[in-house]
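User: I'm curious what two different proteins look like when written out as structure tokens. Can you demonstrate?

Assistant: Sure. I'll show them one after the other, since each token string lines up with its own sequence. Here's the first protein:
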Amino acid sequence: MRLLEFPIIEIENPSDITRSTSGAAGNTRLYRVEAHAIIDKGTIAGISCLTQGVYLETVTFYKMMIGGGEMKLVSETTLADVYISGMEIWHDIAFGPITSEGMFATYKFVYGKIVQIRNMYDPDDQSTGKQGFETNMSQQKLTFLEDDLKWQIPTQAPTEVKRHARVYLI
């Protein structure tokens, strides 16, 4: 996959805060990532070749805050073993006719390895202490939901292009 621009990252935790720290105790955690980005014609042509488990890229985040059940940004954390599990194609009407500049993709992928979390922050952006853990793909079973493997083209285009990603604890 080739992205014209990699998205800015947000991380949200819809579960209770206690689950957000379970990784420090050695518990396996999987995340679903939805990365929105403008894609080129080469990527569009490659959609038919996408399959579950395609390797994408190593992703790095830079800061983490925890508050109100949300994890907003990760500090000095590298996410490895990233796999695409699905894609949606959108067309932004602001770009006019469908072209490589007008296509908008939602990649749904999961990762199975977190190398290290250097620092944790409370809602006031104060450090609450360092925590570190590592999980390994070989020790995990990745579960792909059936809906994640279906390509969808929404009938109504979004009103604006958003370049972001959300990471959900599952």
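Here's a second, unrelated protein for contrast:
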Amino acid sequence: MKRSQLTQEYFSKRDKPPSPIDQHRAFNLVVRITLMVECSADNQPSDLLELGSRPVQWHSDHSLVDFMARVFPQADTGNLQVRDHSGRIRDLKSTVTAKRIKKVAGLRLRGTQDLRNHLKMDIKEGVVEFFHCTSVLKEHLLAHPDPQGSMSAGSIPRQVALEVLDSLQKVLFPSHSTSEQILRGLASEEGFDPDCLRYDAAMYRAENEGDLSYSYFGNRLVDLFEELEDPSPRGSAASASSATRRSRVSKRTRPKAKAAEKRRFPCTFCCDSFKSKFDWARHERSLHLNSEGWRCAPFGSVEISAMTGGGSCAYCGLAYPTPTHLEDHDLTLCKKDQIYARKDHLVQHLRCIHHVQDTPSIDSWKVEGPPVSSRCGFCDLRMETWQERTDHLVSHFRRGKMMDDWKGEHDFEPMITALVTNAIPPYLIASDSKTYAPFSAMAPNLAHADHLQQITKSAEQSFEAWSGSDPESGAPTISLHDKSFPELLAFHLGRFAQHQTRLGVVLTNKMFQDEARRLQFGSVDPLDDTVADNEEWLSLFRSQHLEDHGRQSR
């Protein structure tokens, strides 16, 4: 049953039903108390079960079952066995303990009453959260012994409850250990649910439930394991002592040549690579494909407060604004459908167009871009969302896949491809990484930039020469500056093909490859490899550029 139907059925029986805003708040409160999750965007953090997620609201046209399925997306991580820096297979359950999290990673432990925040690690704040209201989980397990029944009833999924209990009592705080003493100390100091100290999770497992395989929180345990393998610095003083400690530990337990192997997360757009999933995901989203943006007053010029139920001006916060007041903000000058790529651009718009002095709270004005569907170059799987892509590629990287194994393009939709910046084709990354100046979006190589500038100048000179002998050729119709080498080479070879075709020359792959060498190295030495020596790139170039030229000629 949809939320709107539940609301109507419950409150219509009242003689004096509360206002719609109070009905809305009442249902949100019930969900927060019974299911231990927030269903209102006002009280949710921007990162939920996984990095990059957005607040999940229980909308009026969704059932409670649909809402819970969106709150807890499954990502099967199996038996939680991973490889450490020495290549050994490690079981996370014997590694990711509270004691090591505090001592090795330097992270603080903090309780949470939001089920989605369980095992969430905040690198900047230096905190790991864990859900401590275990009595609620046990009540749900008793009420719904059937795994499928718990989902259909709109309860906390049974698998979620079992994973939380297992991760608390067998991973973070195993009994009869120093970690258990840490939990007892936290419980007495922070006022946690006393039930979290009762190590009786086995009593709530059904007889037919064998060894627990993680489907919800496994990725977070893997993230903690990787942080323990290579802890991040915690401030200036902490990082100095931490670095000293790690240097002592590394001499004792880690192999000497480990820098390259630790960067297990390669960017799929440039030659940069990263030690952690968080850094990798942030890099790809911020420097290569950020389809999100900011929209001016997406909920209208008057916003309804979730706390008071009253209206206020979206621009300055004035309570119960009059039409005259709203006109003072020059609403007619605003293009409501415009998306601003950065938050500061929207702030500038508010000041210049709407005469806003004190910027209002605009975090909720962030809008999602279109769904990003793509293909995996490792297994050819089709992925429908960016989050699915992130989780899927991470699973490949953790099993040792690198960009040498990638085949083909990303296969984004054309509108998404247009948003990609600072990128080269993914199947070229492995070979480009081995050159003397790999392409990097994060730290541009000065030698690479200088060489690319020389190549650009050489390409422009070629265009001028071809234009002199070919009146129909003309000057290039696009700027050649600020392009990656594959883009520049594709345009150059396209003009080269036009010139040769007018001379009646039948073009071969070798001719394209020699011209690419002449442009890049000033010679046609076959030992000098270029992008054109990549069969996949050359085939794609022929299909895109030569066929287009052929159609234009006809």
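A detail about the second structure: The CA atoms of residues 33 and 170 lie 26 Å apart.
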